[in-house]
């Protein structure tokens, strides 16, 4: 596509999305759920066809020498397709929140004032490789009564096109506009530049991918961005604390998986329990080959652990999101220093205190300025499904609008409604 | 101030605000309310001193040949000061929402997940002339546990400095950091450029003023902006409708005051009631000297009204925010055309339907994509106080985060909290 055609294509998508969004917003909950169930059926009926289209992406990826784990992320199997179908069905059965009215209260003037939950309008989604996201985003968009424009990674273009065709078929089959979910049909990089700069058509952009992509989009977008930057998450082991539990949770928080954003990168330990706790977790980390970057106090304790892989922590380590078998460890005086350290160095994603002290627990919940704050639970729980949202379109590290795991609610806004009996302002 | 000094001044304000915000967030509700009551007492004790400082601004304004209404807006009188004091006291007695937890629910994993309302952090406020805004913004900031940096108009600099000194005195007197409310001490225009581009220190910008100011800030800001652009509001007179009520509400919506953003600019009338309704409202408008810009059908009916000031409406009129004794009038086929017209031309601020029809009322509430949508009430009610927010920092015409009148809640965010018993993710 040349520049003129691309601009036209994007504006057409935008205009069609805006028009479709009005029809989606006024569609009944039953109609939207029907489309989701129809989509589940279509996914199941088209497993082979989807795999055939997916094979083209896989071939191209292999030929291009993409690393095996990346090729793996691209793959659509009968199992992943079934998971997507089940996800659509689960969304269909979830309560519908569009049109919910909250807080309708009588005012002194006689009018009754409340707020109604309505779709936000049109969102644009920019994501990389995994074709699953096409269905996850589409189904959330349908459930929340929005329209969306999807821009997937070029590696998955054939898979995404096939999935998007099924979504449009499901929409049309359910009497809703097919343009409510549109896939950008070109892998041209400039398409993203257009998508994020059409405030007349697109209300919010949700990027999912590497930090570079998200920073670039945030910088250039002319509309709000629900963005997820780093996950530099912490566990703070307080005094008093059940150390058995602390070992279990800290281990889970770091080693259950190394790559998710909600895995921890930093461990803080109250000085008075450091001597008892650090050797125990040190043995666990040592056995699993986790490198420990320690402040001098932690080092002094951990150096007695056999085969411990210790390094001296630098100031930069406190800021680091390793996403690897590496953890920074620091001994702190207590709750005050722990909160101060987290608020200074964490990425405001997810941080947990492990404690028996009620006052400390309350202070940590209140004062730690992160999207998810936990007491006696593994930060790995910071996830839309684990939080009961039924779905997740992303995790926001911002404070504005949506914060933390973003589900259906994050794709809606509350407008004011006023019910009167002819009242006038005096 | 030269450029280097200005940059330093702004960064000092930012750094101090960020530090103060952490202390404000952890301050008790009682401490914050105490400061508000202290501020009310200080305002009352300093009426004369405030008037003396205000006199300097008034003199300068008069000498500079500022128009009388503008000079009037600048004026602090014993009455306006008392109103500000009462406002602080009312805020103090309002329920505190910081720390509220909503929706704490048990999840299948065993963890309990909910959301806690917390301050957003630091907001920057950019406003013009009226010094009252200094106290309104400061008191809302204190109530909501935020820190703020205020940048008032240069015409009111002496008044603003005097008011901000009292605010800081009240904060310090109540044991809270004086830097929780800071006034930019220079009238240098470049200061705004710095304020809106310090994401490390400022979480959101709230501009209050003319459209030019708000567009400029929205374009250049590096942080989210709660912005209020036009108020092109509508009343739609439906069929069936109590026409007595319709005349009363339409009159109020247009003529009670012409300048507020929630006064209407457009009147839509269902064809089947146009013949009965338009002559009656036409007489009212004619008597009050309101110019009517009509589509051909409305013209045909209204031309029989004696002394009616009629003009032909152009396409541009449907977009116009007159803020003057001018109204556009259009006859529509019914509810569908009314909703389509409003969604196309209104500024998504406030629109009302006057109707007896329940289905039409529900459709209007649901389908009109505006921040405030009303049934049988005057759009002039779209206001934080009338909506029961207890205060208003602005009105947002955006859908993202805060929509419509913004009170304390708009200055907060919901973070996730998780309470566990040592659960780990499997």
From TrEMBL, chains A, B:
Keywords: Amino-acid biosynthesis, Cytoplasm, NADP, Oxidoreductase, Proline biosynthesis. Its EC number is 1.2.1.41. It is an enzyme of class 1 (oxidoreductase). Belongs to the gamma-glutamyl phosphate reductase family. This is Gamma-glutamyl phosphate reductase. It catalyses: L-glutamate 5-semialdehyde + phosphate + NADP(+) = L-glutamyl 5-phosphate + NADPH + H(+). Residues 16-287, 319-388 form the Aldehyde dehydrogenase domain. The keyword Oxidoreductase applies. One of its GO terms (molecular function) is glutamate-5-semialdehyde dehydrogenase activity. It comes from the Bacteria. The keyword Amino-acid biosynthesis applies. Pfam families: Aldedh. Its main location: cytoplasm. Pathway: Amino-acid biosynthesis; L-proline biosynthesis; L-glutamate 5-semialdehyde from L-glutamate: step 2/2. NCBIfam families: PRK00197.1 (NF001221), proA (TIGR00407). Catalyzes the NADPH-dependent reduction of L-glutamate 5-phosphate into L-glutamate 5-semialdehyde and phosphate. The product spontaneously undergoes cyclization to form 1-pyrroline-5-carboxylate. It comes from Ramlibacter pallidus. It is found in: Cytoplasm.
